[in-house]
Amino acid sequence: MLFGIFINYMFEVDRLITAVLINAGIILILYNLYLHIKYREVPSKDERIRKIANTGLAYSWVFTFLIMNLIFWADYFNWFEITVQQVIGIIYFVMLISALLFQQYFKRLGDVE
């Protein structure tokens, strides 16, 4: 929101950009205020949940690294043609999906050693 106001006064930009930034800021503030009021009495994350989340993200990082190596070798041996945009898209997809799946897996397991 403040960035939208700042950019409006400092630079010559379209009013639509300023309006979108200010509205997005207001929406984010109201949404966070709503969440704060709704979940006021919910306990914060305990050590077990934090440990599960960190382990899931670590496994996701390793899995994404292996996929990047696979893409490298596939390109090196000319198994298929792939553009930079496709590689970045694959990496983003693998990062997000694997992080969610590993975290869900470890939540079902219960505790991580």
TrEMBL record:
Transmembrane regions: 16-35, 56-76, 82-102
Source taxon at top rank: Archaea
The entry's keywords: Membrane, Transmembrane, Transmembrane helix
Protein name: Uncharacterized protein
